[in-house]
Structure formats: structure tokens, C-alpha cells
Amino acid sequence: MSTSKLTILARIFLLFATLSLVLAGCGQAPQATTGEQNLQATVSVLQTQIANQPQTAPNPTALPSESTPEPTALPSVSTSEPTQVSSDVQANTITLPRETPLDQPITIPELSVTVTDAQLQEGYVLPDGSKIQWESRRQRTIVVLPPQNVAETNGSSIIISQMAVHPFGYVTKDAEEGWKEGSVNFAFENISDKPASPLCLVTNPKADESTVVFVCGKADRVRISEIQVETQEGKTYPATTASSAYAFSRIEFPTPPGFPFINVYGGEVTTRVNFRFAQAAHPIRVVMKMAPGQNLPDIVLSLENVPEKIPAPNLSRYQIKPIKELAAKHLMDETNTLEMAFDGNCIYGGISGFAERGTTIPYTLTNKDKLDQKVGIIDFKSAAYYPEGVLDYDTTPHDIRLGPGQTEQLYVLLIDIGRSEDSPATHLVVYEQDGSLTVYKLDCMKK
């Protein structure tokens, strides 16, 4: 046999072997064909498919020998059926079939979730707080991360940016015609190590949009679609809140960690859930369901063992300073000859010119230029914390003008804004220019 004929037969044999490997990698065995014409037609079709096939990673289940060319997967076929996956519990990974199309929603039955490729690239939070994301998009493997932003400790639930929601003050009373009325307060707390970005909880999505905009400003909104009270008997009852929106901070300013706080308007707590239930029922929790598209777990407040009062601040992350150390803080640029210095004390009692009581923190302004007046800005950003859970922010810069060589006595004013008398602020949180926080204990003299 001539060399040319041997070469041709060798090439045909090699192509036939490649065809067998490719189809075997797809789990399909071709029917044996006879005749050189049929074989050449089959090879021609296969070559056309391979030429149009996008490059994909090798199939990890195939075990070609070192001398065998790596098989190429056939084009995937789009399907609307849920993609079946296998879980590797030990590695916390989910392996999708290699032919899973990425231009369609991906259903993961074991997690009861349907996600898109974009959501897996960003990371998708499941209702239990765990997070799924691509471990290897090319290999179609998904990693399951443990919960990072959901926890239930003494009835608290963490929803976003490590902002926890604590229930307290749960009360019930008899109503008419076989009903009872219940209410429970809830407080927010930033449990992270850094000030939280401005957020706003919208509990009534049907509220007038202009009202929500006014309350929330530019803050990110966490929208609640409905609120339900669940009972031991499996019956659920609708619930409402006193307001349609609650700011997690003063919108333009971040919330300090460790201070549980409430919203108070007109002396009344507005962060409260109200509901009615049958006298024979036993409420066990309040569920605030997230509106569609929020990609956040529901807020779940346990109604068992609810404390009477708001939780005490958790200040273990701070080095609490006595108010006298505020005297070392100078806010004005001395090169501008304007000097501001706190006296290092605070006074609690009636405030001259005001009907209310409150706390004053004196400071002294001095113009060291004896020949000309000076102007400046006092940029002292702070938040006062009151024992009932009120955080009152003072973030407005104050313009000052001082004559030549003049000295002026002024003070930071913290008016009591709690619901009971003699409830002075207990702590002063000072926002430093480098983004850190300093907390002072307000152990003040009384007058």
C-alpha cells in the first residue's frame, strides 16, 4: 500500500477516535457506520460543530491518556427545566452541570432558589443569611458562605450593615369580642465596629412617596411589604407600625456602634408594632417581610422572653473617657489665632431661656489677635445618647466671629428629649476628623 494511502487512513482513524471520545464524554455512543462516505460525512459535521463551539474548560469526569487529545464539549442546549446540582457538604460547594447556560436563570433545587449569573458574581444572600457566589464561574462551582448578617440572640435580628433590631416592652391587654391587643417596641443597634451608613426602614410601602422621601432623604431604603404576627397555633395576624418610615440615623450621618436606639416623636416611641389576636392564641414572633427585590432576610422578632426595657449600650469596643478629658480637645486652627477649648466639665439642670432641662458642656473661644477680628467655623460633630434609647445628633458647623483680643464663654447644649423627667444624656459620642469615634461619660454636676 502506498504511503499516501496509509497517511489518509491514519488521518481517518484519528478523526474517528476523536469522534468516539467526544461523544463518549457526552454520555452518548454513536451507531457504528459503514462505508467511507458515511464516515467522512459524520466527521465533516463534527468538525463544523467544533469550529463553531465556544472554548470551554475540560470535563473533569473525562480521563484521557497523556497521548490522547483533550475532548471538547458539545454546545450546550438551552432548557427551561431546573438545573440539577450536586452538593459537597464538606467543602460547602455546589457543582452545576458543566453545560449549564449562564444566559438563563439558574435554579438550585437543594437551596430552593433561582439566581442569575450576575447575582452569583456579586454574591446572593439567602433567607437564612448565608451567601452563595461563584467559586469558579468557568468550572460552574458555587461556594456557600455561612451567615454573616443574620442572627437571633434574645430575639434580635440583624438585617443589613450589621444593624440589629431588638424587641422590648412587649405588652398585651384584653379587648372586646374575644380579642386581645398587643404591642412591642423595637430598637436598632449598629453591632459592627464602624459607624453605619445612613439607612431607612420603610414599613408601609403604600405610604405617600413624598412623605417617605422627606423622611429618608438620600438614605438607602429597606422596604417592608407586610408585617405579620405568628402564633403557636399556626395562625397569623396582620400588624402595623406607628410610622411609615424610620431612619437608622439622622440620614446624613452614620450611626455609632453599640448604642441601641429608638425613634421618638411627640414624646412617644414610634418604633412599635401593634397587632390584634384572638384571646385563645399565643403569639410567638413578629415577621417583617422584605419587599420583592430587596435580597435581604426578613426581620424576625421573637416575642418570647422579651425584656421590659431597651438593651443597655454595649461599649466594650470603646475606651470610655471622663468628660474632663474633653479639655484636651482643641477644635480651632491655632495658626488662625482662634482657639477653642472645652472647660472639661458638664452641668445638668434647668437651662436659662428654656423651659426644658438639659446638659451644658462649656467651652471658651479666644481671639489671640489683639489688632483685628477673626472669623472661623466650629465643626464639632457629636451625638448624645439618652438612657431611653434616643440618639440626638449635632452635626451642623457653627460660624463664629470674634473681635480683637476677645474671649467668649459658650457651651454645647443637650436638651432632655426623653419621655420622662430627669433623663439626662449619659454619653457624648464625638466624631473625629479621621473617621474614628471618641466616647465621653457625661457624669455631670447638678444645679
Secondary structure layout plus pairing:
Layout: H1 3-25, H2 36-52, E1 86-88, E2 93-95, E3 106-108, E4 113-115, H3 117-122, E5 124-125, E6 131-136, E7 141-145, E8 157-160, E9 163-174, E10 179-190, E11 199-202, H4 209-216, E12 220-231, E13 236-241, E14 245-247, E15 264-265, E16 268-269, E17 272-278, E18 283-290, E19 299-302, E20 321-322, E21 338-342, E22 347-350, E23 357-367, E24 374-378, E25 382-386, E26 390-394, E27 398-402, E28 407-415, E29 427-431, E30 437-441, E31 445-446
Parallel strand pairs: 11-12, 20-30, 22-31
Antiparallel strand pairs: 1-2, 2-7, 3-4, 5-6, 6-7, 8-9, 9-10, 10-17, 11-14, 12-13, 12-18, 13-17, 15-16, 18-19, 21-23, 22-23, 23-28, 24-27, 25-26, 25-29, 29-30
Helix pairs in contact: 1-2
Task: Give a written overview of the molecule.
With 447 residues, the chain is mainly beta. Among the domains are: 200-303, Immunoglobulin-like, CATH 2.60.40; 319-441, no CATH class. The chain has four helices and 31 strands. The protein has helices at residues 3-25, 36-52, 117-122, 209-216; strands spanning 86-88, 93-95, 106-108, 113-115, 124-125, 131-136, 141-145, 157-160, 163-174, 179-190, 199-202, 220-231, 236-241, 245-247, 264-265, 268-269, 272-278, 283-290, 299-302, 321-322, 338-342, 347-350, 357-367, 374-378, 382-386, 390-394, 398-402, 407-415, 427-431, 437-441, 445-446. Strands 8, 9, 10, 11, 12, 13, 14, 17, 18 and 19 form a ten-stranded mixed sheet that branches. It has a five-stranded antiparallel sheet with strand order 1-2-7-6-5. A five-stranded mixed sheet has the order 20-30-29-25-26, with no helix packed on it. A hairpin with a 4-residue loop joins strand 1 (86-88) and strand 2 (93-95). Helix 1 (3-25) packs across helix 2.
